[in-house]
Design a protein that fits this description.
mainly alpha; two-stranded antiparallel ribbon; globular
């Protein structure tokens, strides 16, 4: 911490005494930039890291927090992954896997927050390791980090788009009174079209992305709370607490049962992930060394607590486990919405889940 303060004071001194810094361009040519013409955040990056940011800093506390929350997509990502712990170990795996694995995810999120605070650059962890790793290991470690990040982004985005297409087609199936049932080919086709839409939205300027992001978290929390209340109020045949917290029923095919139960970790690990996504917009955030780490930790804490409670609600109201897992819509949580809330409520909250996970793809791409 003392070293960080000294670095900042040194940058301030450089700005007052020198006023300029030499930056290295992508073409290898050097140029001199007057620090007095930059914002404080941009001047710090230019002085400390040797390059000038080019993005407009239009993200504030609310929009940055909303962006960080959107990465998890809590309501919709729980809906798309609820079946995995349910198959792996029953209701107990749904609940306790979230508790155990979520603590580990929170620890990682806090570590990433600290790194983002120290290195608020859009390069994220790829750039950070170049500063923290031993000099001789920088090329190899940066190469590994870069490829892992790229593969994670591709796989994570593809799975989100797949989940989005499942939710959308589940709503269509409900609307047709199940005369239409989605097929794998249809799901993949909608997934491709959805990915194209995501690319178009990501072509918008920072101004429009900030406007959309600002209102997202309010919509998301309102949907999560209202859906949870509606499910608890409307469900007539709820499971008891003993079933929800202690039932072990592994139908995944993995043995022994204890090993199968651990596959429930997949749900929370997929939901509470991609923490460094907020790092990639730090050069679009004012005071990023404060707002970005705050947004990451608070968003992940909200996801952890909110996901735990939402999973409990779903476990209480899900009804017969076997029947929802064999849903003709291929979307167990959408089937729960339909069974408990009826056709209008089922369609409404399934569409809400679709919109939320689409925003996950907008911010994640």
């Amino acid at each position: 911490m003392a070293q960080k303060v000294n670095d900042i004071e040194d940058m301030r001194h450089r700005k007052k005494s020198v006023g300029v810094v030499e930056l290295q361009g992508l073409n290898g040519q050097s140029r001199v930039v007057n620090l007095e013409q930059l914002t404080d955040a941009d001047a710090k990056l230019a002085a400390k890291f040797g390059y000038q940011p080019v993005f407009k800093r239009q993200f504030g506390y609310l929009s940055t927090f909303s962006f960080a929350v959107s990465i998890s997509g809590l309501f919709s990502t729980v809906a798309t992954t609820f079946s995995y712990p349910l198959r792996a170990g029953g209701a107990s795996s749904v609940i306790w896997s979230w508790v155990i694995s979520g603590i580990g995810c929170l620890c990682i999120a806090c570590s990433v927050s600290e790194l983002v605070s120290a290195y608020p650059t859009c390069g994220g962890l790829y750039y950070t390791v170049s500063r923290l790793a031993p000099k001789k290991w920088v090329p190899s470690i940066s190469w590994i980090t870069g490829w892992l990040n790229l593969l994670g982004q591709i796989a994570g985005h593809a799975s989100s788009e797949y989940g989005a297409s499942q939710l959308l087609l589940a709503a269509v199936s409900m609307g047709s009174d199940f005369t239409y049932l989605p097929t794998k080919r249809t799901i993949i086709g909608v997934m491709v079209a959805s990915t194209v839409l995501t690319g178009l939205v990501n072509s918008l300027s920072t101004y429009w992305m900030e406007k959309m992001t600002r209102t997202y978290v309010i919509f998301h929390i309102a949907v999560l709370i209202s859906c949870s209340i509606a499910l608890l109020v409307k469900c007539e045949n709820r499971h008891d607490a003993k079933y929800v917290f202690t039932d072990v029923d592994a139908t995944s095919g993995w043995t022994p049962v204890g090993f199968s139960w651990l596959f429930g970790f997949l749900s929370v690990s997929w939901t509470m992930t991609n923490y460094d996504a907020t790092a990639h917009i730090t050069e679009e955030i004012s005071k990023p060394e404060v707002k970005a780490p705050w947004a990451i930790t608070s968003a992940m804490l909200l996801t952890y607590v909110g996901g735990f409670l939402f999973n409990i609600v779903l476990s209480f109201v899900m009804g017969d486990k076997a029947s929802i897992l064999k849903s003709p819509m291929e979307q167990p949580v959408a089937q729960i919405f339909y069974n408990v809330l009826g056709k209008p409520g089922g369609i409404f909250y399934t569409v809400c889940a679709f919109l939320i996970i689409k925003f996950v793809t907008f911010t994640g791409m």
